[in-house]
Structures are given as C-alpha cells and as structure tokens.
C-alpha cells in the first residue's frame, strides 16, 4: 500500500527561483538562505519519494478571477511551466501521477471535499520554487508530482480547520491506494508577508516562529486561528500558511520534527522551512 512518509513545509518566494536560475545562490545576500536548505537537500537525496503531493497557490497562471476553485487537484500526465511575464523558468516539466491523483480526487469527494479536477494546469513559482529548493537544478525532477492548488488569494479562503481536515482526507486516500508508493506531502507558501499598502514588507518573526512550534506540537491551536488573525499578525499574504496545515493533517498527530530553518529577509518576506517525519 502507498504510505505518506514525511511532510515538508517551505516558503515559495519567487525571488528564490530567480536567484537559483541566475546563479546567485553563493552571493552575499542569498548565501545564508540557500545554505539553510543544504541539510534538506542532503536529507532528500537519501529520502527521495516516489510521489510528492504539493500544496501551493496559483498566482493567476492556471486560474484567474473568472474561475477560482477553493481546492483543485491536477490529474494530468504532466504540467508545463507557466510563463509569469518574463518567460517560463528554466526548470524541467513536472511529471504527474494521474492514477494516484484520480484516486485522491475520488476518495476526497466521497469524503465530502468538493475537489476541482484539472487536466491542464500550467504551474508557476508556487510549485516550482519548492521543487528547486529541495532538488536543486536536475535535468528532470526525481519524483512525480500531484499539484493541489488552494485559493488563498480571493476572499474567502478555506479555514485552517478545513485545510487540516483535507490533509486527513488525503492521508486516508493515499493509505487506501494499493500500489506500494513512498509519498510525501508538501505545504508551501508564507510565512508572514504583505506585498502592498502601508504595511508592505511586514515581517512578524514572533508570529512565524510560534506558528512553526504549534505546527508540530499543537496543530489544533492553528485549526482555530481565524483569517483576521493572519491578516493582522502576518500580513495580507500570511494566510498562505493555512496550506501548511494540509501537510500537517496528512501526517497524523505524532509527527516528528527533523529539521527547521527560518530566515529574514528574502526579498520582502520571511522564509520558513520544516521537515516532519510521519510517525
């Protein structure tokens, strides 16, 4: 049977992808940040999964204001790299796992989650930057990827509780899939940041670090956190952190923290990253 072995959370700041693509990772500004991911890349070499279920938010690449699904799952064989205005990133095409994706869709829908099934979905930095931070610059990604896009752009986004419960539904779906697969669930986005208005550039290190603590030990506390608290404490884009709760819900209550990294600033945001082992 398939099994979820680990969960990874990471920011998906687009500037990280640009720094990697342009060969700037050893320059003074970027070097400490990329050094913080070196233990993760080493761990990943020894723990490369067959499939990554990658939870992210689309940035008007696959969807627009004409169509805003709360939860969308990519069921295609492959996903092309989106052109976000300056050409597609020079990274490999993302290979999907349609059999597992369709199984998750069916299981989650029967579990009362109304998943939007997508068979053509260009993927942007929200998905490709996490892959780059964990795998570097390979000629092809070393695993298959199932994208799950979450609306955290147009109000109302899903609650933390709903996201955590979706993670639990994903765990049930994966564990009922007969082929023997090593699966990881990644929750991306965040941490505290605001891109516009008088609070542009907001970074709340205290909030971020408390969130990371609770993600491991007290996820039920985060399930109760209302949207307005993310807005007030973590900025208008801080609500992306609810996507980390999907990852956490997929691991079960006894997940073990293996690694943590936090860095400010990266562009105008805070970068957070964790590796959790499924108990």
What report would you give on this structure?
- The chain has 279 residues and is of the alpha/beta class.
- It has a single domain, classed as 3-Layer(aba) Sandwich (Protocatechuate 4,5-dioxygenase, Chain B).
- The chain has ten helices and ten strands.
- The chain is 35% helix and 21% strand.
- The model has no long low-confidence stretch (mean pLDDT 97).
- It is globular.
- The relative contact order is 0.23.
Give a concise summary.
With 279 residues, the chain is an alpha/beta fold.
What descriptors fit this protein?
Protocatechuate 4,5-dioxygenase, Chain B, eight-stranded mixed β-sheet, 10 helices, 21% strand, globular
Give the domain tally: 1
Mean pLDDT: 97
Helix proportion range: 25-40%
Decide which structural class fits the backbone.
Answer: alpha/beta
Our measurement of the CA-to-CA distance between the termini, rounded to an integer number of angstroms, reads 16 Å
Radius of gyration equals 17 Å
Shape call: globular
Oligomer: single chain
CATH topology: Protocatechuate 4,5-dioxygenase, Chain B
Percentage of residues in strands: 15-25%
Largest β-sheet summary: 8 strands, mixed
Count all strands and give the number. 10
Number of helical segments with 4 or more residues: 10
Order of strands, widest sheet: 6-3-7-2-8-1-10-9
SSE arrangement, N to C: EHHHEEEEHEHEHEHHHHEE
What's the CATH architecture name? 3-Layer(aba) Sandwich
List low-confidence stretches. Answer: none
